[in-house]
Amino acid sequence: MERGEKLEKIIHEKGFNNSTLSKATGVPYSTIDSMIKRNLKNASVDSVIKICNVLGIQAESIVNENEQKPKNLYEINSEFTKVPILGEISCGDPLYVEENFAGYRIESTDSLPSGNAYYLKAQGNSMSPTIPQGAYVLIREQEDVENGEIAAVLLSNDHEASLKRVRKSNDTLMLIPDNSEYEPIVVNEKNPCKILGKAVRYTFDL
Q: Considering only Cβ atoms within 10 Å of each terminal Cβ, which end of the chain, N or C, has fewer?
């Protein structure tokens, strides 16, 4: 099966057509139509990844392994990984349970940090301008971070991880928003928190 036919088949199987997929991805209708008709020839990697993110597939699934890849898609030769986006998180449950998943983003495996990684979508503007609202923040799972680093933390009275800068002073732990309009959070026995991981970088879809 040609690459274009394979992509068109997956689009229909996922309940989309070219028009609805264009709206969901921001990739122009004409670009999607051209990718299908021209078997992804000269398609940009950015467009391919946006489409794959929405369809929930790996980029390699629409490229036949035995075919010569188009020059503009040479990155497809690298292994790609579906990185989960985590939404609501229960304090007593493991992170990687199905109920926590809010979708996936596709990343080149070589670009990911070692260990487990996942994405959180920044809600609100407490970490702006460092992290804009709506950005997808890549988190490396770890139980602690260095002083001054940004971490994904889960407060005992919340079910959604938030992003805060961690400040340590003697036995005191504080969660500091980068936006001065928000108050710091002092962690103590009455207001405990769990550090879920370290913020590595963020991406932002236009």
A: C
